[in-house]
Amino acid sequence: MNYSTKIKEDLDLLQTIEKQQYKAQCRDHVRFLRLLKSGQCSTQTEAAKRVNLSLRQAQRVWKTYHEKGLETLLQPRKATYFGKLSTTQISHLRRFLLDDQAQTLADIQAYLAGSLGVEYTLGGVFDLCKRLKIKPKTGRPVHIEQAPGAIEIFKKSLLR
Question: Which of 123, 139, 145, 149 is 20 to 30 Å from the Cα of 130, by its Cα?
């Protein structure tokens, strides 16, 4: 395949765009196209190895460029899915857990369904706790996110 005719942008423009990219992924994609356009690499496999992409990634980059153009390759990816809870609901959940009102995953599940109106299975609650770094068996925050002064209060209550 003659990539020099298939790639519309000229070499100087591709090199300028490559230097302007601050994200490594976008920079690699433009470099991949530049190597093909300049003729330094005659196949996608060669160019992929030089840019450190897998063959499948290179094929996806080429397909995206061929169908939608260079602008699509340079656009940031869409935001990923972060779950059913919003940030304010997560803060309410953390406050609930700091008040030591949940001892089990079922307690957390009941709170989520009753107060926040979000239905989770027990497995989903476990995954949520894992993602938020909450100890799932006792429903308490991990030490790093512990409320200031909580350790001293706990130690004083043990001494009595």
Answer: 149
Q: Which run of H or of E encompasses 11?
A: helix 11-20
Q: Report CA dihedral (44, 66, 71, 35) to the nearest 10 degrees.
A: 30
Instruction: Pick the closest to residue 48 from 37, 59, 39 (CA basis).
Output: 59
Number of H helices, E strands in the chain: 10, 2
- pLDDT, one tens digit per residue, over 34-49 is 999 999 999 999 999 9
CA distance 39 to 19: 19
Q: Give per-residue pLDDT as tens, 56-94.
A: 999 999 999 999 999 988 887 777 777 788 889 999 988
CA 91 to mean position of chain CA atoms: 20
Rounded Cα gap, residues 142 and 145, in angstroms: 6
**Bridge partners (DSSP) listed for residue 27:** none
